[in-house]
Amino acid sequence: MVRLDARETSFTSNMVRLDARETSFTSNMVRLDARETSFTSNMVRLDARETSFTSNMVRLDARETSFTSNMVRLDARETSFTSNTVKRDEDRWSNCEGRQVIAPSPDLDHCVRF
């Protein structure tokens, strides 16, 4: 046990407390100020942001990105690579054969193969 000024540092239970901050490595939990970071369940929470890698899901602010179904969603945009097709904003899916890309242009009414 070490005590300096009003600070206490204990290494007996892998706990560090400095000022009003607490850091515990016994359960792989880090708490500094009002932030909590836990690696026990592969979950990271900083401020109001949550990032979880247990289900391959990333959520930052109001954005969600999931790679479990090869689907990416940012803001109101959806991009799916499962059928080699890209859908953005209000664009429609193409019924062209083979691989295609639908660009966010209202003038594009044909398939772009790649």
Concise account of the structure shown:
This protein has 114 residues and is an all-beta fold. It has strands at residues 2-4, 7-10, 15-18, 21-24, 29-32, 35-38, 43-46, 49-52, 57-60, 63-66, 71-74, 77-80.
Summarize the amount of helix as a percent range.
under 10%
Number-wise, the strands total 12
Oligomer: single chain
User: Helix and strand string, N-terminal first?
Assistant: EEEEEEEEEEEE
Instruction: Characterize the biggest β-sheet.
Output: 12 strands, antiparallel
* Rg from Cα: 23 Å
Structural category is: mainly beta
Which residues sit in consecutive blocks of at least 5 with pLDDT less than 50?
Answer: 1-96, 98-102
Question: DSSP strand (E) fraction?
Answer: 35-45%
Strand neighbour order, sheet with most strands:
1-2-3-4-5-6-7-8-9-10-11-12
The overall pLDDT, averaged over residues, is: 44
Keywords:
about 110 residues; mainly beta; 12-stranded antiparallel sheet; about 40% strand; disordered N terminus
Model description:
By secondary structure, the protein is an all-beta fold. The protein has a domain of 67 residues. It is 0% helix and 41% strand. It has no helices and 12 strands. A 12-stranded antiparallel β-sheet has the order 1-2-3-4-5-6-7-8-9-10-11-12, with no helix packed on it. The protein is rod-shaped and about 75 Å long. The N terminus is likely disordered.
Topology at a glance:
Layout: E1 2-4, E2 7-10, E3 15-18, E4 21-24, E5 29-32, E6 35-38, E7 43-46, E8 49-52, E9 57-60, E10 63-66, E11 71-74, E12 77-80
Antiparallel strand pairs: 1-2, 2-3, 3-4, 4-5, 5-6, 6-7, 7-8, 8-9, 9-10, 10-11, 11-12
